[in-house]
Each structure stands twice: as C-alpha cells, then as structure tokens.
Protein 1
Amino acid sequence: MTGQLDQLFVSLKQWLVSFLPQAAQPMAGILLSISAIIGAFATMFAITTIMERKILGRIQNRLGPNRVGPFGLLQPAADGIKMLTKEDIVPFAADKLVHFLAPVVLIIPVALALAMIPYGRNMTAVDLDAGILFFFAVGSATELSVFMAGWSSQNKYSLVGAMRAIAQMISYEMPLVLSTVSVLMMAGTLSLPLIVQAQSGYIYEILPRWNVFTPWGLAGFVLFMIAATAESNRAPFDLPEAESEIIAGYLTEYSGFKYALFFMAEYWGLFAVSGLAVTLFLGGWNAPFPFLQWVPSWAWFFAKLGTIIFGFIWVRGTLPRLRLDQLMNFAWKFLLPMSLINIVVTAMWHFSRVFQFVGAREMRWVLCALVLAIPYFFLGRALGEGRPAKRNYKFAE
Amino acid sequence: MHDAFFYIFAILTVFCAVMVVANPVSRSPITSAMFLVLTITCMAALFVQLHAFFLAAVQILVYAGAVMVLFLFVIMLLDLKEEERRRIKAVSAGLGTLAVGSILFLIIKSTLQFGQAGAIPPHTEGSTASLGKLLFSNYVLPFEILSLLLLVAMVGVILLSKKDLK
C-alpha cells in the first residue's frame, strides 16, 4: 500500500502512456512530465503568493488579503484575472522584440531547472549525468533576461535596476556554486538523484544521514541559502527591484501578462533553488526518521520545500534591505572566502574518516567546526571595520 | 531524427554567427551580442549530440552565462550611437571574406584528405567522471598552468583597476 502511494504518480504516468502506440510512448512520457511540473508549480505559485501576503501580514501586525473568497483564499485567481485583462503597454522607445522576449527567456530556463530536481523516488523528469551543472548553466541564462528587460525598456530606472541585478547575481553565483562543491565532493557525483541516494540511510538506525547534520553541510547550507536569497532577488537582497529607490528596477516598464510572467518566473526560480537546497543538504525525498518512511517520498520533498519557502518569507518580513556596498563586501569578503574554507573542511572531514581511536568521531566534529568558526569570527569582524564613520551630506545640510 | 537535429543546430549556428557580424536589419552591438549568445547555445546543443554533456553545460555556464553577460554589461555602459552609425567598409569586408575563405579552404582540404579514414577513437566517453580523471592525471600540468594563467590575469586586472597605486 505505502509503496503504491509512493509511486502513485509514476504508475499514473505509465498507465496513461500505455494507451499510446509504442513509437509515441517516450515522447508522450516527456510531455506528461513537463505538463505535470508546469501544472504543479503554477498551482504552488498561486498558493505561495497568498501565503506570503498572509504571513507578511501577520509579521507586520495586520490581516493581509481577506476579501476574495473564504479567508481571502481566492486572491490569486483575482490577481490572475486582473493581470490577464490589463493593457499590455510597450514604451514607444523600447526595442519591441527584446522587450517581448525578456520574460520568455526568463521562464524557459527556470522551467528547465525545475525538470532536474528529484521530487520523489523515481520522480526525476530529466536525469542527466551532470544534472547540477545543467541546473547552474540554465540558471545563468536568467541574468541575460534581466539584462534584456532592463536595456530594452529604454528607461533609466530599468537600466539601473538591471545593472544592480547583474552585479548582484554574478557576485552571488560564486558562493552559490562553491557551497555546493562540498556536497559534490562527498557524494562523488554530479547527478542529483545519486546525491539524494548518498544521503539515505540512518546513523544508529535513527538519525538521518543528511548533509546538513555535518559541520561542512551546515555551513554549506547556510552559505547556499544566503546566496540563493540574493540570486532570486528577494529581500534583504532586493536592491534590483527596490521600490523606494528605483520604482521596480528592470520591471518598471512591464505591465499585464508580461509582468505576471516575470513574477511567476521569479517564484519558480525560488522553488528551483529551494528544491536544490532540499536535494543537496536536506536529504531530498528521504524521510527524517525510519519509522516515518510510510509517508510517500514526494510528500517529504514538498514538505521540506514548503518549510524552506516559509523561511524565505520570514526573512523577507524581518530584515531590512542592504546597501549596495554592504551587498558587494558581503559577497566577496565574507561568503566567497567562507565557501572556499568550507571546501577545505570537507576534505578534512573526508580524510579524517580513517581515524579509528576512541573519541575520533567527536574530535573530527570539533576540529572541523573550529576550522569553520575561527575564520567566521575574524571575517565577520573585518566586515564591520570598513564602515564609514560619518557621512557628509553636501546638499542636504 | 539524430541527423535532423544535427542539421537544424548546425544551420542555426552558422546563421546566428553570420548575424553577429553582418546583420542587415540592425547595426546595434547589443543585437550582435544577443546573436553571439544564440550561437554559443546552438554549439552547446551540438556538444549534447556528441554526448559531451559536461562540455555543453560548461559552454553555456561560462560563455553564454558569465562572459556574455559581462560583454553586455560593458556595451550597456558605452555610447552605442557611434557603433550604430558605422557602416561596413569594402576593404574590411573583402579582407574578412579572404580570411574566412582561406580557413574554409584549409578545412575542406584537410577533411577531403583525411575524411573517411574512420573516426578518431575518443579519449573519454564524455561522462563527467572520466573527464575529471583525465584532467587530474594525464593533463594535470596544463590544467594547473591554465589556472595559474587565469590567476595572473585576475591579479593584473585588479592592479589596473586600482585608482591610487602606492
């Protein structure tokens, strides 16, 4: 029974495909996977937008949307209708073709990235040998889209927004990729399903063998999440879209359904990068305890994904926006050295595996944690030192 | 099927490459850069058909992603009007055609000479693991020298961009 529930979607797909002639089956299987991913994440986008507004409302001591439907739950439907019926305005000076292509160039790579992630046992839409590399490769195309949107609008706010976005995304891509290297080193593979497999099993038959429960895994997870927040342009790293400074950045000249597409692609990117975090550090679709293994694997994956997204919303509601120099210093002077040190720590962890004397396990823990904690302390102190003492306002005195 | 995909992407690669330098509609450097991105992406598709997934992913990650975005970043900050007004000169067009023609001649000649002698046995199967093993065993010295070269370039750029040299 549990096995059937676990493989529900896989057998459903096989059953649907079996109606077709033999020659068309592989193609039909791929099309089914694509439509399942698009459908599932479009729904999840709707749910996340309403949950985000509700949770932000709670954090800011107000109710949030509560007019449309019971508890305001139909708000996404109302928003969707509004977006669809709005006029699509293209600026007169804009490069029409590039302006039109920008949201398309954003949403296709993000959908491709979503196809890489293992959602459950045997539930990876595209299982590539170099899956994680492919993920980052298509992810880098999103920078191009941001540039296209900002440049083609022929608007100074759009251009400033695009410049900020590109500078930020290039800077934070380094720690993002480097923090995953430690996981790849330990798993010895670039394939995402195999990385999940490497985290299955339990220590002492009870504790999960997830990467996040090791010193390098915890550090990598924190680094990855910070860089992921910046990559998906979310608060406190939302400088490219800072409403109070540059209207909406590269989204300024977009309206109607193109804006909705941008909005959706941003959330999809958030889901993709959160899904990657779940896969790399939180054990993918593995159950946290052996006695909970009767719960289907995909349910575990989406539960972890939901938790991470809740964390993102919480951070957005809590932290104020960074300044541009703080943003750059943080990426290059803190995150990048820390992620490089983390790689060394991972190597230490790997090679200290051979020690068998009493207390070797505990010593390995303390040693690796120390090697991470000392640079953390000093790099953190160094970040605070360069602070300008007093600013001179030339025209505002 | 496989052949059809090869021809589609090969034609697309050549078409986009031509559009980078000789776009009849627009003389904007941005358009050229966009077509260069398309060319690189089509070449990655060709690598995929050779089962070199790693190479394809790195091609997109490094060239279409990082390098081209930096290109666009620089173009965006420059004055574009000058470039847009510039026309193709007969001399440069002639010299370019001569250069491309001679390279084409060399390629065709060597292909005809060695063409049907059987495919060269591949060093690797294109899988990431075997490529990594080769890089860190047989080719470790060139690999390290190349990384050192990149490091030197990086230090040089930082030195150049420093405003007040002490």
Note: The interface with chain A takes residues 30, 34, 37, 53-54, 56-58, 60-61, 64-66, 68-70, 72-73, 76-77, 127-129 of chain B (CB under 8 Å).
Protein 2
Amino acid sequence: MADAALANTGAAPARPSGWQGITADWSSDQRAFKNVSWGKAMMWIFLLSDTFIFSCFLLSYMTVRMSTTVPWPNPSEVFALTIGGTSIPLILIAIMTFILISSSGTMAMAVNFGYRHDRVKSAALMLVTAAFGATFVGMQGFEWTKLIMEGVRPWGNPWGADQFGSSFFMITGFHGTHVTFGVIFLIIISRKVLRGDFDREARGFFTSRKGHYEIVEIMGLYWHFVDLVWVFIFALFYLW
Amino acid sequence: MAQAAVAHVEGQQHPIKLYLVVWGWLFVLSTFSYLVDYFGLHGYLRWSLILLFMILKAGLIVAVFMHMAWERLALMYAILVPPVLVLVFVGIMVFESNYTLFTRIIFFGAGT
C-alpha cells in the first residue's frame, strides 16, 4: 500500500511552476518533491552530502596549498608520462578523464534503454560503464604505484611542499573508492536488469520493495556524480 | 513544464541523440582544458579558462545526464543552492590561509 503510494512517479496533476511552484510544493503538507520517488530524492540528498565531503577535501587542499611557504610541485610535470621517448604532460590524467566521461555517456544511454524496457541493451551498456570504471581504477592504481615508487608519501615528496602527498592520496583515494563501489553496484544492477527483475517487479532481497527500471536511473545519478567530482578534481588538483 | 509532465509519464525519456551530443561536447571541453595545460598558459588566463571549462562540464553533466533540467524547481533549488553556499566557506578559508602564510613568513622567514 505504502509501496504503491511512494513509488508512483506517474502523471502528476498540473502544478504551478516557477517560484509559485516551489512554495506550493514545499507548503503542501505532503512530500515536497512531487514527481520524484523517495528513492531518487534520497539519492539526490545523499549526493548533496557527498558533495560537502568532497568540498571539504578540496577546500583543505586549497588551504594547505595557499598557506605553505614551500613551492607546490608542478602537477603538469609530476603526472607526465614518457611515451615513445617524449615526455607528454598530464597525459595519463587526460586519458582517465576521457574514460570516465565515456562511462557517463554509456550510463546515460543505459538509463534510456532501461525505461524502454530494452533489457539486453540496458544491461550491456551498464556493463560497458562498469568496464570503463574498472579501467579508470586500474589506471589510478598505476598512477599511485608510479608516484609511490618515485617517493611520494603523505608526509613528503621529492619536489616541493610536503602537503602535496596527503592531498593527492586523500582526494584521489576517496574518489577511486567511490568509483570502485559504483562498479560493484553497476554489476549487481545490470544482473537484475538482465534477469528481468524490473519487468516482473521482483522484490529486492534487502528492501523487499518492488523493483522498477527507475533503479537504473538512480544508479546513473550516482555514477554521473562520480564523473562530476572528477571534473572538479581534474580542474582544481591536476590543472591548477 | 508541459514537456516535463510528459517526460515523467514513464520516467525520463529523451532521444539518444541528445546524450551523444552532450557526450561530444564533454569530450571537446575536456580537450580544451587539457590544452590549457599542454600549451602552458599561465596566470589569470589559465585559472579562468580552467574554471570556465569546469563549470560548463559540470553543468552539462548535472542538467542533461542527471536530468536536473527536467526536474521541478523545488528539487533543483533544494539540491543546487546548498553547494553554492560552499563558496562562503571558500572565502573564509582564503582569508585564513593568507593569514597563516603571513604569519609563517613573519616567524619562519620566507621558504626556510
């Protein structure tokens, strides 16, 4: 009963838009997010809290970088790779960026095919997304190994300000963990899609709620957020 | 608004082409921001270009990939306004770091 009422994202009666819509939605003595299910709303609120976590990391990075009297290591040189005898600045990070953006593209299409009840295409695109994600984490592992071999530690490094290492490991480590969890959940959800759980409205083993293709969109929200965070890390940590 | 109401009859339905176009733009913008580093631009030009490409990419991802553009304003504002307030925190920490740097230079001597 409650299940049907809360999961219904169907055609809502016409409601006012603009500022009137905001006041009407929030003051309706009902749920504030009218055509968004609780699952999607809670994912958005979780992502908001995650935004604050990453904001705090990037802020503390900004603070240590601005307040140190020792020059900051040049990321362009630190993350350069020598390919075919020439040193290309930041190339690994650029490739990682393109991989993560591509994974976002395939995820967006997986959501679309999910709503069209195209099980095979949706699941296949999610598995491609997971593969891109796993590649990204692998390249991050390579990058960490390279830097650790070169002597970067959370308390120091050969090139400049000691805080470089701690900021780097903290920010990219937390982001990599998010990607890893995303890959795990992508595989779980794609298995459910492939099995037809959402066509049969099979109940989830954890929540016992009926499954809908909206789960794919909620998964997509998380995955796009991971890509979004990388946009900020790429700009503020690697390029700055 | 009518478009949003229709889109919600069965979840978010948009043509695949839209996603491919956004995907292409994200590639182009990422290439631009990489080129900022590749060509070694410096100073305010570098920083403003990096921030510009960052904001454009973030906007495309949130608006199209995460479907925020088709949500009702009540959700949009509830999710998008709080992160903007982080900018106040940024301001506070810039002030604080400048002070820390100042005291470090005064008491430790520059860079030693």
Note: The CA atoms of residues 105 and 112 of chain B lie 9 Å apart.
Protein 3
Amino acid sequence: MNATTWLRRNRRPLMVAALMAVVMLLPVPAPAHKGHAGPMVDFIQANDALKAMLPDGAHVTRRKEALQAAGAAWAKSSLGVALDDDDIHTYLLARSADGGPVLGAAMDVEFDYEHGDIKLAVGVDAAGHVTRAAVLGVNEKYVDEVKTGIGAGFLADLDGVTVQDLSARSDAAYKARNNTAGDVLGHLRDMAATLAALSHGLSA
Amino acid sequence: MDAPRGRLQGLSPSWRVLITAFLLVLGAGYLSGALNAALAVGLTPAAVADHYRDQTLSRAEEQTMAEQGFVEEEFSFDAPAPPAGDMSGHEHMEGMAGMEGMEGMEMGGAAPAAGGHGGRSITRQELAQLSHVHLLGFSFILLTVGALACLTTMAEGLKVALVAVLALSLGLDIGGLWLVRFVSEGYAWLTAVSGTAVGVCLLVTTLRVLFEVWLCRPKEMRT
C-alpha cells in the first residue's frame, strides 16, 4: 500500500485528528490567565497593618482553627452573615497582657480580584466592631482602579463600623455600580464576621 | 515475520520514519514529564500527597488540631521576617474568595502576619491552569497514540481496552490531583498509578506499532 492509498483509506479519521489538533492548539485568551496583572504592589506591609489593628500592649497569639457550626450560626443570627463552618482560619488574637479576656482579633487575607489578587486586612475589638481595615496591596494593573473605587492602605472611614455597616456599605456600592468597593467591603464584612464569631466562641 | 494485513504495514519509508520519529519524541516527552515530576514533586504517592494536599496546617499542626481543635502560638510583631518565598504570612480564603492566582507565589519576604506556619496550598486557579494545559496536551496524545493503536492488527478487544485505559489514566492522572487537594490526600495513589498506566499504554502501543511498521510484512507482499 502506498501512502496515497493509505491516506485515502484513512481520510476521515485523519481529518478529525487534524481538526482536533487545530482546535486544541488555538491560543487560549491570555487575559484568562493570572500572571498578566503585573506584580503585587504593596500599600502597607501586613505586619504593620495588623499591629495597628490590635490594642497596644496586648498579649498576641496566632491561632488556627475552624469556625464551628455554633459560631457560624451565631454569625448568621447576630450579624446576618453566612459563613462556611469548615474552613480553617488563621488569625491573630489579642488578650490582655496577663492572658485574660479577649481584646480583639485581626487577620489578613488574599482574595481573587479580576485577573489578579487583592490583599486585605481587618481587625475587630472585643465587641466585634472594626478597629481598622486596610487594602494591603493589589496587582499593578488594578492599582488605579482600587484607589479610585475604595482606596489604598488604611480605609479610615471604616474605623469603628459594625459588621452590619459593612454589609450595608457593600450593598450600596454594588447599587452604585462600584463593584470594586462592593467586592472589597463584602470581603471585609466576611473577615470581620469571621473574627467576631471566632472571638465570640472564645469569650462565651 | 508475518501477521494479518494491517494498515501500518507496507507503508512507504517516509511514513515509517515519520511514525517512528513521532513515537520516539513522544516517548522522550513522557520520560521528560516523568523526570520533571520526579524532580519537582516526587513519584511516590506520599510525595504527591505532600505536594498537593491542603497545606494550611503543617504535619505537626494537624496533630495538634486533631488533639485540641485549634493551634495557638505566641506571636510577636518584632519577629524577624521569614526568608523570601515563605508563603506562611497570609491566609488564603478560597471558599470565600473563589480562585486565587499565581501572583501569590511572589509574596515571600513579608513579615509574618496572621498566616500560619504551614506551607502554601496549591490554589484552585493554579490547579485549573495545570489541568487545562495538561488535559489539552493529553487529548492530543490520546488521539494520536490511540489512532495508531487502532491501525494495528491487534485484536479489537485489546485495542478497545488499550485506548480506554489510556483515556481513563490520562483523566485520572489530573483528577487525582484535585482529589488530593480538596478531598483527601489518600487519593495520591490514583495519580501515581494512572501515571504509570499511561506509560505502560504508551510503551505497549509504541512497541506494537514499531513492530508492525518495521518487522511485520504484509501477506500480499510475501510472494
């Protein structure tokens, strides 16, 4: 059998193979991949931000624990925030210098943001109110967008707000078509609620 | 050596060379992939589990967590910064945040913050990226090697089994990584076994195809 005959006999599977090869080799749109949003631009170092979110002179420990079902239920009923009760959270816990009652907690988290990431931090006091909140950094491509939409570094207008305030502000931002603020405030709400629920479990 | 007449027999020399070269390059590609896996991760189920498992907690912390339900350690803001590349400084909340990006790998150097001492878990986005790159390549391998297998004179049942095992193994090779990351590290054996099965399928097909291309003479050409 010569090659021409072989090709003729197998033209259908060969055509399918060629078509499949072309489809598979089509370039996937580059923007769909992370890594095209530029390097991370830090506005504040996480360490500095977290330190400012916790009371001075407190005894600070780093804890890792999952939010128990009771904690998640408390967050839902008391704060109106639905939280997963299976993720393990890492956060800083501040107690009085003698290791007594809980004075506050803080955490920093990196979230997905468009085709990059955004780093956020928030602290809460013993009552579950936000002490300070901050945008720690974002990929270079989105720096201007984030600065315009919500701000960079410490977000001064969030000092002292409640979790419910964060929810309301997030909803309002979405209604105003400011998705950047809506997303960031929504993440901060979840973080603050998580900290409040974890702290509540320790205080209860 | 004689065999039932097949489509791979009696090919012109140029086709023989092409098919042979393709199989050799493919074999080299497979071995290179295996070498890369061995160097970057390891080939044993334990190594796969260690690399792809959820690393929110270190092994020691897992023990502590199992015993007391939490891990707690003293923290000082004045502690020296960890070496570059240490990803322990930040929590990754995929459940709330969705998928995360490769940029996270560049976060080393920050002073230790709320994040724990465990290593950095591979994220959904990274696993999705790894999967799509590999699966697209796998589909091409499946189509080409499977087609060559189908053109041999092996028994039809054997060809069906070979192609099916190859397809299943290619899928499970990647699927196993997702199971290790998000279900249980006990599934690491799946990736190790399926990766080996892929190699066996490629080897069997390659040897059979080369046999028919070079050593098997078609019956009509014997006289």
Note: Chain A touches chain B through 56 residues (CB under 8 Å).
